[in-house]
């Protein structure tokens, strides 16, 4: 009898230990959210360490405003994510509270049931009383049923005891989980308040810069026109190189077409022309498309996007419209440009006037463009791999070491917004 009790107690202890170990596991949802926010916050903090313009003229103020605007956008993105996480955590707290209430109700019911069984045993506690109950049966069949009832009732009591222990552990674990989730909520609320205050400070600083620029409207417009002219010249050169690449592919396809009709179907005479892809190119292009939103940032180190794709007005400045064919990414002095996907260098050229390098890399019928490099380590025809460094980004020593990569993404002649393609 003592051996059976020992085995039963050992089983209960093992069961309790297993449940406790499981209860100690962190809540995956909340921990995942914390890690994601931590990455975003780290990116914001690193981008704030980037040097902003030290010039007090219009160009310097515009550069400072661009950097500040990029940091403000990053902080707004963090706040949006944090608010979404807060909603998720509130839902988790509600769900855990309901589960805890259910577990406590079940525990109370099991305890009451166990108490009733003990009261029943109290009335029939002696061995003599149990034997008398069994052998006072009028028939052998009734004797057997009574003996089985006594045995099953004892097993029922043991099971109730086990269930109470397990349920008690579940209740304790759920209380701990709820407590940890509530602590995560308080921490998140604190983070939100701190980040809102920092955002207000940055927006105040941006308004101050805008106010200064408003007083220099004419000079500002002249500077923007100058920048637009330089950008148009750069884009014209890129367009010309891409057109040459398309024409080269078209002629190659026509040359192959003389040996068979299959290649002719891919390029019709009189069309604008498209890249004719080999089987390997098609697989590469397909892989490129499948990695939309996962491609690495084309710079090393911390960064902030200081100018976005397309046409947009500068907030607070009347009639000041910017037009970007790609995105501008500010990083630290010494940072390098890196390739976003496997490909082949289709062109390396220097822009007349500043002597800086620009690199075009072909990925099937997609082309990535890296501009504003002070030096480069690749040449036309080189095969490059994802994340391969291809040159150092120019740092303007006259402007506090301001380091900005101009990055574009094309699909043949079509200009694409790079941001949805890049992983942040």
Biggest sheet: strands, sense, closure?
Answer: 11 strands, antiparallel
Task: Work out the helicity level.
Answer: 55-70%
Count of alpha/pi helices = 7
Average residue-wise pLDDT: 78
Beta fraction of the residues? 15-25%
**Computed Rg:** 36 Å
User: Poorly predicted ranges (pLDDT <50, ≥5 residues)?
Assistant: 1-28, 262-275
Q: What is the molecular shape?
A: elongated
The rounded distance between the terminal residues' Cα atoms is 66 Å
> Structural class of the helices, strands and pairings?
alpha+beta
Order of helices and strands: HHHHHHHEEEEEEEEEEEEE
Number of E-state strands: 13
Tally of discrete structural domains: 2
Question: Could you explain the architecture of this structure?
Answer:
By secondary structure, this protein is of the alpha+beta class. The protein has two domains: 2-214, no CATH class; 276-421, Glucose Permease (Domain IIA). Helices cover 58% and strands 16% of the residues. Strand 11 and strand 12 form a beta hairpin. The radius of gyration is 36 Å and the shape is elongated. Mean pLDDT is 78; it is low at 1-28 and 262-275.
Summarize the structure.
The chain folds into 2 domains: 213 residues, no CATH class; 146 residues, Distorted Sandwich (Glucose Permease (Domain IIA)), CATH 2.70.70.10. Helix content is 58%, strand content 16%.
Topology:
Elements: H1 2-23, H2 28-48, H3 58-123, H4 127-135, H5 140-214, H6 217-257, H7 279-290, E1 303-307, E2 310-313, E3 321-324, E4 327-331, E5 336-338, E6 343-350, E7 357-363, E8 366-376, E9 383-384, E10 389-393, E11 395-396, E12 402-411, E13 414-416
Antiparallel strand pairs: 1-4, 2-3, 4-12, 5-10, 6-7, 6-9, 7-8, 8-10, 8-12, 11-12, 12-13
Helix pairs in contact: 1-5, 2-3, 3-5, 4-5
């Amino acid at each position: 009898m003592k051996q059976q009790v020992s085995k039963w107690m050992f089983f209960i202890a093992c069961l309790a230990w297993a449940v406790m170990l499981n209860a100690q596991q962190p809540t995956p949802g909340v921990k995942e959210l914390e890690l994601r926010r931590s990455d975003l916050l780290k990116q914001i903090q690193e981008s704030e360490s980037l040097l902003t313009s030290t010039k007090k003229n219009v160009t310097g103020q515009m550069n400072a405003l661009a950097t500040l605007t990029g940091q403000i956008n990053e902080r707004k993105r963090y706040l949006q994510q944090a608010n979404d996480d807060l909603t998720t955590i509130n839902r988790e707290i509600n769900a855990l509270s309901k589960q805890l209430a259910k577990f406590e109700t079940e525990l109370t019911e099991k305890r009451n049931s166990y108490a009733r069984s003990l009261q029943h045993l109290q009335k029939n506690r002696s061995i003599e009383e149990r034997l008398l109950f069994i052998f006072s049966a009028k028939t052998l069949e009734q004797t057997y049923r009574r003996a089985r009832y006594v045995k099953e009732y004892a097993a029922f009591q043991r099971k109730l005891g086990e269930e109470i222990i397990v349920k008690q552990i579940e209740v304790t674990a759920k209380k701990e989980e709820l407590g940890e989730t509530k602590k995560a909520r308080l921490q998140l609320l604190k983070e939100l308040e701190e980040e809102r205050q920092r955002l207000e400070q940055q927006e105040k600083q941006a308004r101050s810069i805008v106010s200064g620029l408003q007083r220099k409207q004419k000079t500002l417009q002249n500077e923007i026109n100058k920048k637009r002219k330089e950008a148009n010249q750069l884009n014209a050169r890129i367009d010309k190189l891409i057109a040459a690449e398309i024409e080269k592919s078209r002629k190659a396809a026509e040359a192959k077409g003389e040996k068979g009709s299959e290649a002719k179907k891919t390029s019709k005479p009189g069309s604008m022309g498209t890249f004719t892809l080999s089987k390997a190119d098609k697989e590469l292009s397909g892989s490129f498309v499948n990695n939309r939103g996962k491609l690495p940032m084309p710079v090393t180190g911390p960064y902030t996007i200081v100018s976005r794709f397309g046409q947009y007005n500068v907030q607070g400045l009347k009639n000041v419209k910017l037009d970007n064919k790609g995105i501008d990414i500010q990083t630290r002095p010494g940072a390098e440009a890196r390739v976003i996907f496997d490909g082949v260098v289709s062109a390396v050229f220097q822009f007349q006037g500043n002597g800086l390098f620009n690199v075009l890399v072909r990925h099937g019928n997609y082309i990535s463009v890296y501009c504003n490099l002070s030096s480069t380590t690749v040449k036309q025809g080189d095969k490059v791999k994802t994340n391969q460094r291809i040159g150092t980004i120019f740092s303007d020593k006259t402007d506090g070491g301001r380091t900005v990569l101009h990055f574009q993404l094309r699909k043949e002649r079509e200009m694409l917004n790079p941001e949805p393609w890049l992983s942040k």
